[in-house]
Design a protein that fits this description.
The protein has one helix at about 40-50; strands at about 10, 15-20, 25-35, 35-40, 60-70, 75-85, 90-105, 110-120, 140-150. By secondary structure, it is mainly beta. It has a seven-stranded antiparallel β-sheet with strand order 2-3-5-6-7-8-9, with no helix packed on it. It has a two-stranded antiparallel ribbon with strand order 1-4. The chain starts with 8 loop residues before the first strand and ends with a strand. The mean pLDDT is about 90.
Length: about 150
């Protein structure tokens, strides 16, 4: 009823990161399979996948694409891009909270991990259920990745 905060996670994701450590430049593409939504309550998960909200039959995924920018000390501090959700594409900037690369001890290739955060208003994507009752439309988005360099 809009009096508490619901947190969810997406359990089915994939993506590609291209990162040039020397210049701090690159790009990212993340595909989120919306059928993997998990609010921790099966009835709410089923409802969110239905035509009443995400409508995963018609819009099965959300996609975020962007490029690394604002390089400080050789490391990008943000991703400037856009998110497509529910058939709507909007600009979105993610703040990179951390980005670290190390040699993978077994694969002997570079491995990087990052944490990025942003927010959006869900009604701008046509997901306005509850707005008339005063439900909050703002959604915090966190994306964590780990990637191993291709051989």
């Amino acid at each position: 009823m809009g009096i508490s905060v619901w947190r969810g996670k997406m359990n089915k994701n994939s993506g590609t990161v291209v990162y040039d450590k020397a210049s701090g430049t690159g790009r990212v593409e993340v595909t989120i399979d919306l059928s993997g939504i998990d609010f921790g309550l099966d009835a709410l998960n089923d409802w969110a996948r239905s035509a009443q909200f995400f409508n995963v039959e018609k819009f099965p995924s959300a996609i975020y694409t962007g490029r690394f920018e604002n390089v400080v000390g050789g490391v990008p501090t943000q991703v400037v891009g856009e998110m497509t959700l529910h058939g709507v594409t909007r600009p979105m900037v993610l703040k990179i909270n951390s980005l670290k690369c190390i040699p993978h001890p077994m694969l002997k290739r570079e491995m990087c991990g990052a944490d990025a955060a942003g927010s959006f208003e869900r009604d701008q994507f046509g997901l306005d259920m509850g707005k008339d009752y005063g439900f909050r439309m703002d959604v915090g988005l966190r994306i964590q990745i780990e990637a191993v360099a291709m051989p």
